[in-house]
Each structure stands twice: as C-alpha cells, then as structure tokens.
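== Polypeptide entry ==
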Amino acid sequence: MKTMTNTCAVCAKPIGISMLMCAKHWRMVPLDKQHAVVGCYGRWQRHTGPKKDLLELIVKYRNARDAAVASARAADANSATGELL
C-alpha cells in the first residue's frame, strides 16, 4: 500500500498528509497565526450546516493558511540572511 505524503508549503521536504509544513517552518510561524490555521481548519472540517457557510469557512482557512505560509517564508528568508525579524 502506498503511503500518503504531502510536501512542506515552504520547502520541498516530505511531510505527513495532515500537515501544512515541516516542523522547522511551523515553528517559525507566530503562535497567533498557528492558532488561526488550526482553528479555521477544525471549524471547516466539523461543519455540518448550509453549503453557503462552508464556502466562508474555506475562505477563512485559506486566508489563515496563506498568512502562515507567508510568515514562515519571510522568517526563513531572514534566517538565511542573518536578519532579525
């Protein structure tokens, strides 16, 4: 049986299918953004109401996800150049 894998949203490292990014990059994301991603994803996955509400939850999750990825990419770029955030 083939193992399901995903790749980190910041680097090409293979990660688990339920993860957004590798541990190194996830730790670079500020806690408030981590909580936003996890919270929005959970609300989306548990949704049982009308489809119109589902679309709003997906948009909120994608916005939180994109902000977290951008934050990790910026932190990674700054750590590569030695700059402090």
